[in-house]
Batch of 3 targets.
Target 1
Amino acid sequence: MTLRLPTTLATDSDAAANAALTKYYGRPYLGDDAYVGAHFDSWSSTGNRAGEADRFTADDLVAVTFLSVQVPPKAARTILDTQSEALNALLTAIGPDRDLVGEPEPLAPGWPAWDLETALWALPGIAQTKATKLIARKRPRLYPIWDSVVSQVLGTERAHLNPVREALRADDAALHHRLLSIREEAGLPEEISALRVFDVIAWMDGKNRGLGEPSDQER
């Protein structure tokens, strides 16, 4: 399946994509004009995100609210308590964060991140959007966010993970390198991954075109 680029990336100019990214993250970065979702990437009440990479925390449940989703109480207890050992084991099995563009083979069931998404889906009130946002919070370079806005922009309603991976790898990783260049031009820190740059650009494009469910048009 071929991924469709956002309109802001469909030309050789990066100006529109840069403008969308700057509008989302604010100027200066995380200034008063930033979207609330801009805080998803960096939110930490402990200052120890690196030390929490292999376990879900209450901070992660707060962070996804910046992207306009809520983890229901029963699912929150499951993630943080009753099934935390199993879910955190899958998270650990993924390995350290790394760029999705570097994954050489198609991803499938049996890959720990895939299995983690499946496990999260099984929780009450957690579907694909919330599951991918939770995983993207822990592995922002590796796992793309899916929602109705982004998937309609990219044409990935039925399959998202592998089409994004393939698009990033095509033409000697041209799209991946372009996203990093746009990030630099926008003055964003390296903690904003290429995947997240792509997500924000696609989401801003879809929001401006009125695509997706109303609940996904705010973040």
Target 2
Amino acid sequence: YPARQDRIHDLSIVGMYDISRRWKFSATWVFNTGDAATFPSGSYEFEGRRIPYYTERNGYRFPNYHRLDLGATFIARKTSRYESSWNFSVYNAYGRQNTYAISFAANEDDPQKNEATQIALFRWIPSATWNFKF
């Protein structure tokens, strides 16, 4: 069976461009084949409880993962006492809801059927950073 961390494809493309001596831009695109996962094939009831059963270990895959990170850095003027820069970035700029986990629950209309629900953590994360040296 494939290992949990088995990723058939793992690709990162990085681009950096200096607009001027003070402004720098960057972009990173990341793509991964979805992680291998074991999902329940069905379930049965035993003493009033639903028990899932599994047929194939890591026989399924999460959806493929991809995101675009963008960043801009402004380098402030140096002084005799310090130098500094500001960095503004967005993690997952196009807001893709990449699958973190998949949850299973019984269907409300037909308790014999399972429903899968995708769980995603972050759509996008902006950040601002001030760096300085003295």
Target 3
Amino acid sequence: MKEIDVNKTLYELTVQYPELIDILADLGFMGVKNPIVRKTLGKKTSLREGCKKQGKNLDEVKAKLEKKGFKVLQ
């Protein structure tokens, strides 16, 4: 099973699991499809922080990622 640590940066996670780019975009993470944004802001922002900054409920994001086959670690 693919594991996601919510404290890893969005950049690290999307490098490890490129399929996350489309999944996160579908969840409403703005800019995640832009490689420049991922390499700059994505290197400074964890999944947990990204949820907070974009007004996403972390538990809801976690549940949606788990439906896509990921195990989400907190």
